[in-house]
Structures are given as structure tokens and as C-alpha cells.
Amino acid sequence: MHISRRRFLAATALGLGGVPRFLVRAAEQVEKSPDENILVVLQLSGGNDGLNTVVPFQDPVYHESRPTLAVPRGAALQLRTGGDTEATGAGAPSSADLGFHPAMRALHELYQQGSVAVIQGVGYPNPSRSHFRSMDIWHTARPEVEDATTGWLGNAVARQRGKLPALDVGDDRLPLALWGDAHVPTLQNLDWLDYLSTADGRTLRSRLQALNDPAREGRKEWARTLARDTLADLEHIIALRNRPTPVDYPDSRLAEGLRWVGQLIGGGFGARIYYLTLGGFDTHAQQKDAHAQLLGRLSDAVAAFHRHVTALGASHRVTLVAFSEFGRRVRENGSLGTDHGVANPVLVVSGRARGGLHGSHPRLDDLDEGDLRHGIDFRAVYATLLEDVLGVPSEPILGAKFASVPFLSATRTF
Amino acid sequence: MIRSARRLSHAIRSPSAPQEESGAGGDADAGLEAYRPGVDGPWTRDEASHLARRMVFGAPSDLVARILSQTPSEAAAEILAEKPENEDIRFTSDISRQVAGLDGAQASWIYRMLRGSNPAREKLALFWHGHFATSERKVDNVRLMLRQVDLFRTKGAGAFEDLLAAVARDPAMLIWLDGNSNRKGNPNENFARELFELFALGIGHYTEVDIKEAARAFTGWHVKADEFWFNERAHDAEPKRVLGREGTLDGGDVIRICVEEPASAEFIASKLYEFYVHPAPTKALRTALGKAFSAASRRTGEFLVRLLSSRAFFSARTRRALVTTPADFAVGSLATLGARANAGAVARSMAAMGQELLAPPSVKGWEMGEAWLNSTTLLARYRFAVSAAGVEGDKAEQDLGARWDGGSQLTDPVAEILARFFPERLSPDVEKALRSSASGDARLLAAGCLQLPEHQFF
Questions:
Q1: Inter-residue contact B240 to B216 (CB < 8 Å)
Q2: Do the domain assignments include residue B30?
Q3: Count H helices, E strands: chain B?
Q4: Residue B155: in which H helix or E strand, if any?
Q5: Are B371 and B246 members of one domain?
Q6: Are B312 and B169 found together in one domain?
Q7: Which of A54, A240, A350, B14 has the CB geometry, 3.0–4.6 Å to A319, for a possible disulfide?
Q8: CB < 8 Å to B370, chain A
Q9: How far apart are CA B273 and CA B269, in angstroms?
Q10: Looking at CA atoms only, how far is residue B21 from chain A in angstroms?
């Protein structure tokens, strides 16, 4: 029995699943408009120490709780700006008392230019301190469902039926956030893709083309079609990859991944969602240097990416959001590190960000069993991203209505 | 720990491809009689390779030669029979228990698949690993994961009831399905539900009440200090009613009641058929398979030997009817080539192809069939092919630590490699495209064999 490609595509359009290929063709079918927004999600795995990311450097409780890990008063990069509008809760540190970790110089520069929104004290009720469970909650956005098998972005992709292509960039398994009833491809093995774009790689690609030249029948023909589609997509991706990058990126895996994303955006690849991961934040011991290095890597790579999309004239279309499954406890532990905590800042970098602080910094003198109390539900942040960036109604995905957080300018200025 | 074990397919999910129409016979002729070479069909390298690919990994040429010197049932029985494991394997297995993290544990299993004396037992263990899919990501204890795989090795070919009873007491399984929170008065249904739905019966052969009652029978089946522990105080010894049977049932009773259901034999036998023979048995064939499983006293090994030497197994429609799994692609291709590689690197490649050993995506195991193939996993297969065949010397070393002599010992490497991978012969235009893309280079030819759409089915 032979099922034609057309019928096959028709079947998948019914929502039974996406075409299991890179998304070039699906993306080409999306009506292109110059103001199509793009979401770049950056997952900081392991539980980033938010208190040493956005540092309440004036707070005596902070210094007292962290005798070896506290960022010194003079070292933090101050977050006070001219036009601060944040509503500071009573007793909460204000922008004059807060600063980025000194390793985040590059992001601080962007902050001063107004391209970084810091959403403070983000969490959810009855927080889990298990990496798995808490990450699952952030991925599914359904803490009330224990066995959720689809993610908030995967659900958005499935809901939009091919109009919201997503791409995972990384070597790990597809994050649960992207699971859903549509195929989301992973651009993995970036060094392999780079090899494929060399002269040797080109020879290999043409051999692969030749192997798939003769038509087959039945399921072998299905496999051949998949191979030919994949090779065609690969040509496209490599062509984008070989375009010159207008900015220099630092030397790190994250930077390499973000450079790919920048190149794909620059070439009009068409994905609306990109997903990347930076691991290593589970700093139970000897945190100081390791955490500083991670924050530096994060800051440098994200700043380069922002410069890249700015040079492409796309910074207003691109919103990067960095989150972690939880923060760390306020008090450092006996191993010069910190243990799993709860509420944490979420960082947003975009040309359309309403730069500055949003929400109030959790108070250090009013802890919940040694942990910060969250002020903003992460699903409210998702609501903004879903509605203002992706143009998807948030309520069906989040299971409830969450008032969005105004960290993006509503009207885009080009 | 509340991590969900019920998780559906994800990265590797893809739409179903057209199934070839099955031309199975009716009730009268399920094809489970022994295949008679010369009467029912030929007995050539093609049939022998088919048997090898399905029972072990790939078609190593020495095994294919040995199969041809035997009858089909002799060959199947000998391949599955347990042979003493060599020192080397015992040593690496012990080491991996002592020191390994997940990477080392995966590598030690791959090593046994590639170099152990019992590849057919390893393949059967992989089947049971997918069936009783337990993941290190929740169990968080590599030694317990490896112990569970050992269970599949030692009991996987024996009576299904014994295997199931051992799995129900297996510490990794108890952690995976929340055994310790299953207590009298507050039963946790996780294990009982999966026992019925996924492990022993299949949907439609039990009720929600059966699950609730069965969960009570397993109360107190806990794990303590990495061992099974019957916590009598947490056990509910009151009468229960499961699948129509009443009494002060305990977990062992429920397992016995389960496997005695005719639906259970059909469920397990059909799943074995789907793994080893063909992805879509007809309803009539499922019934016949269940009967054959019962006739083999529900002993998996006996059933498999009969199934894999049957007319149905050697029929035309079963050839290349299964999508090559990452294990068959990676381990099988190396075995067919006669190449060596770094086991840890092979495990990582398999993960890139969508099959991370000891970490299946959910309690349902890996989604088989066309779901293995998508753009991402296809590129991972292409990469593996280049490395395994040593097309780029440095790159191969770097990626896989692959060592293959390039067929330099063979008189006609190109013809021999083609015959190893495609003893049934490729269609003339495909063979022509393959030969001309390789232009006489054995390594290019081998890589091409792995990359062909034809090799994505086995």
C-alpha cells in the first residue's frame, strides 16, 4: 500500500503529529511578516543562585547569611537607573540596594541601555525543592497535575498547528517544555553540523543525496522522503550557518548555540521558538568561582546575542528569557555552597523590554523556613510571553488566567 | 519523590508512516509450524542473516555461517541458550557496579551486547527493559538499575510469572513506581495500574476496581537499604477481589491471577512478536500467539525458539518489516562490519538516535517503529555510519573510537560487505547508486550501507 506524500501531510495536519523533519518547509508556509516575534528560552539548569545574581548588597541579613559567598558591597554592579518605576514592597530592597554579580558586566551594560528586564521573586505556591519535580513544574506550567506529559511551549506549538515552529538547540534530550502533539526537532551535535558544512562534509552530503536518488516503494519510500527532506533542510541550515556573523561571540558552548540561533534568525529560518540550556548551577559546594564563571559565561553570551540581533535589526522582535527551576537557600551551607531554595529572578533581554526591575525583591527578614517568598507566579511571566510574544491565548495552556507582567512594551517601535 | 513515571513519547515522536498491508492468513494458518528449508522456502545467507539480525545485533558473518550449518530450530535454540560469560565481561560488569555513573553503566551494557557470549540474552534483556521501562532519572541509583537488567538476563527467558514476580520485588521498580508509599489504608495504585495496563494484561482486560483492589494486595511491598522489604505493618491483609477472584490476596496471588488470564498470554506473546517479527499482528494471529505462549508453559525462551524458527518468521512479509532501533543500528552495524568501538561513545550515539539506555522516556518504554526516524535522529545515524566505517580516520577515532580494518582481509571487500548487509540483494538501481557513490572504497561503501533507507529497516 502506498500512501502519497500529500495524504501523509494531510494526516499530520489533522493534529496527529508534525512532520518529523527540520522545520524549514513548515516555516516557509508561515506567512512571513517583518514583525513576527521570536522567543528564545534559556534554561539555567541546576538551580541558579538568584541572590548572588541580583544581589541585595545593602542588606545586612544577606551578608550575615553568606559569610563566604556574599558579593561585597562595592563589587556589585548597581541596578539603579534614572527612571525607576518599580513598586517596591515595604521593607524590600529597592533598585538602589540591588546589583548584578560582578561577573555580569556585559549584561549590566545592556541593563543600563534599558534592554534588560529583571523580574524579581518569581516562583509558585508549595514549591518543590526536587530538581526534577520543580523543573517539570516550570516545563509543564501545571503544578497541579502530577503526571503532565506535555509542556507549555509544546502545547502552544501544537495549538497553532504548524504556525509556531520551534527548534531545540542542544545535545541533550528534548526538554519537557517542548513536548506535545507536534514534532519539535533538535539541532543537536553542532560540531557535526559544522563538519557537514566543510568541504569534506559537502562531499558526504552529495553522496547521501545520491544514495537517496532512486525512488523506492512503501515504507522505504517514506524513509527516503524523510532523508531527502532532511538533506534539503540541511542545505538551508548550512547556508545560513555560513553567513558571516556581524559580532564576535565569546568561546563557550552557550555562545555557540546562541550564535546558531542568531544566524538562523538572520537568515529567516522561520522558527518562532528557540530553546537552549546552560547547566551547572547546582552549586552545593565551592560555589564562589564556579558560579561567577557561569554568570560570566551567561552574561557574555547573551550580550553578544543581543548585539547580533540588534545588528540584524531584529532586537525588537526577539525576546530572550532566562529562568531556573529554583533559587538557592538564603543561608550558605557548610561546604562553601548553597542548597536548593525557591523564589528566583527571571531575566528578560529584548529590544522591546521595559528595562529595569519588575516586582519587588523578596525580603530577607521575612523568610519561609529559610527561603525567600515568591511575589510573582512564573505562570504570569509565561502569560506575557505567550500572549505578547507568541500571540497565543495563555489561559488554555496555563489552565487559569494569570495577569500578565508588563515587562515588554506593548506597542512595538521599529 | 513525585516525579512522574507516566510520560509519553517526545523528541522521537513522529507521525506513523504507511504500514505495508499485512497478508496474514486466517485462524487455520497462523504459520507457527516449523519452517522447513527446501519445502517452505530456501535456507540461504538471506534467511540466516534475517534470523541473526532479529535474535542478536546485526549479522556477524561467523554466526551466519554457523546458522547455515544447522536447522532453523537448532539455530534459534543455540543462539538463545545461555553460554558461560567470559572473564572480560565479568570483570567490566563488576567494575561498572562499583564505580560507574549512568554513563559507565550504559557502556558496560553496550560492551556486553558487542563482546559478550550471550548477545541474544542481551537483546531479550533489552526487550524486557523496554517492557518494564524503568529509568535511572527517577531511581537515581545505577547499581539498582544494573541489578534490574541482571534480572532480565537471568529470568528473561524463563517462565513469565517468575520474571514478573521478581520484577514486582525489584528495588529499582519499587522506587520507580512509588512502592514505599503504598500502605494499608492509603494505597498507591501506581504499580498495580502499570501491572495491568503495561506489564501483564493490556488495556480492556481489567477494571478500575481491579486496580484499587490489586494495589491493596501490594501494600507493604517496600524497599529498604536497596533491598526488597515486606513491611508487614503496612500490608493490608483483609480480603480483596481481583479479576473475579476473592481471598486475602497478596501481591504474589495477584501476579498469578494476572498471568493465568488468557489475555495475558496473548498480550505478552504479541508484544514479543512485534519486537522480533512484525509490527502489526492480525487479531487472529494474536490469538494463535497467545495459545502458543500458553503451550510453551508461558516460558519466553521456549516460545521464542518456536516463533523464530516458524514459517511465519521466515515469510516474505516479515523481512525488513521492523524499523531498525538505535541499538540494532549502532550495535548491530558494528557487529555486522566486525568493527570495534568505544562502548561509552556508542551509548552516547544511541542516545542521540533517541534511545538512551537505562533512561527510557516513560514507563511505556520507547515508542517503536517509525517514531525512531526523524530529521534529528537520521542525522545522528549518518554521523554514526561515517564514524563506524572510519571514513574520516581522525573523526572516527574522535567520535566512536571505532576500529575497523576496512575489509582488508577480504578478497572482494565490496561484494562481501554488500552481502553481509543486504544478503537479499538491493534493487539494481539502489546498488548502482551505492557502488558509484563509494567508487570502490570499502569504507565509503560500508558507511553508505548504513545510511541507505533500506538499512533503516531490519
A1: yes
A2: no
A3: 24, 4
A4: helix B142-155
A5: no
A6: yes
A7: A350
A8: 219, 222
A9: 6
A10: 6
Integer-rounded Cα Rg, in Å, for chain B is 23
CA distance B150 to A350: 53
Residue B217: which domain range? 159-278+280-319
Is A132 in contact with B454 (Cβ distance < 8 A)?
A: no
Nearest to B174, CA basis, from B143, B147, B139: B139
pTM here is 0.82
Q: How many CB atoms lie within 10 A of CB A68?
A: 9
Angle at B364 (CA atoms; ends B363, B365), nearest 5 degrees: 90
Rounded to two decimals, the ipTM of the complex is: 0.91
Mean pLDDT across B391-412: 78
Do residues B223 and B264 both lie within one domain? yes
Q: Domain count for chain B, please give it.
A: 2
**Tell me, what DSSP letter sits at residue B177?**
T
The answer to whether the beta carbons of residues A362 and A84 sit under 8 Å apart is no
The CATH number of A38-188+272-398 is 3.40.720
**When comparing pLDDT for B47 and B20, which is higher?**
B47
Which chain B residue is nearest to residue A205, measuring alpha carbons?
Answer: B382
* Domain definitions of chain A by residue range: 38-188+272-398
Q: How confident is the model at residue A149 (pLDDT cuts 50, 70, 90)?
A: confident
* Interface residue A35 vs chain B (CB under 8 A): no
Same domain, B354 and B273: no
Judged by CB atoms closer than 8 Å, whether chains meet at A20 and B374 is answered as yes
Same domain flag for B214 and B245: yes
CA A340 to chain B, closest CA, distance in angstroms equals 15
Chain-centre distance for alpha carbon B56:
10
Region A89-100 average pLDDT: 81
As a whole number, the mean pLDDT across chain B is 91
Average pLDDT over residues A338-349: 95
Comparing CA positions, the residue from A355, A269, A359 lying closest to residue A319 is A355
Q: In one letter, which amino acid is B92?
A: T
Q: How far is A401 from A383, CA to CA, in rounded Å?
A: 8
Report yes or no: A3 at the B interface, CB cutoff 8 Å: yes
Residues B371-381 have a mean pLDDT of 90
**Which phi and psi (to 5°) does residue A273 adopt?**
-130, 130
Residue B246 and residue B219 in one domain: yes
Residue at B144 is within a domain? no
Q: How confident is the model at residue A10 (pLDDT cuts 50, 70, 90)?
A: very low
CB crowding B357-390: b at 16 or more within 10 Å, else e = bbbbbbbbbbbebbbbbbbbbbbbbbbbbbbbbb
